[in-house]
Amino acid sequence: MRATGGTRPRSRKAAMVGVAVVSAVMLMATGCSKGRTTNTAATPNLIQVFVQQFRYHGMPATLSAGYHQIVFKNNESFPITHEMIPIALPAGKTAADIAADAKAKGPDSEDDWLHIAGDFGSVDTGASIVETMYLPPGNYAIACWQTGKANGGENGPTHVSIGMYASFTVT
Q: Are 47 and 39 in contact (CB under 8 A)?
């Protein structure tokens, strides 16, 4: 006998099978989505970079495209301020070109280069800062345009002009 409304009453066993099928589909969908990398809320790659003796240490030569969280620490043994400015390098340019530009123009050369998302700002000796940024494929560098000397004097060449830069590629 048919129920009114054109539907047939379901047995308890049929209802349990239906719940099991829906649950299995939901589990498969959840399992398939775990491997996706397009989620912008994904945990960024953590990179530890520090400066010591006017050189960056710990910056990988190659990174994968995506979100990266960088911890930048000033580990100098004397009081001085450093910064880490990420730059997108134009085609045919290298980090050495940034240093040459800084030697020629001084601190004003910073405006000649395209800063990318994330400016780590100034960090005094012993301090650190964390920045998260998205990096698409390309060639990049980090540089410091602060001035100052190891003996505590604020006047001096820009740090990038004396070798405080590093380059990296994002694939």
A: no
Under 8 Å CB-to-CB from 137, ≥6 apart: which residues? Answer: 65, 170, 171
∠ at Cα 152 (146, 154), nearest 5°? 40
- The Cα–Cα gap between 84 and 74 comes to 10
Instruction: Round to whole Å and give the CA distance between 99 and 43.
Output: 33
Q: How confident is the model at residue 134 (pLDDT cuts 50, 70, 90)?
A: very high
Q: Are 83 and 120 in contact (CB under 8 A)?
A: yes
Residue ranges of the alpha helices (H) in 63-118?
Answer: 95-105
pLDDT at 44 over 70: yes
Q: Helix, strand, coil shares of the chain as percentages rounded to 5?
A: 25, 35, 40
> Residue 89 corresponds to which amino acid?
L
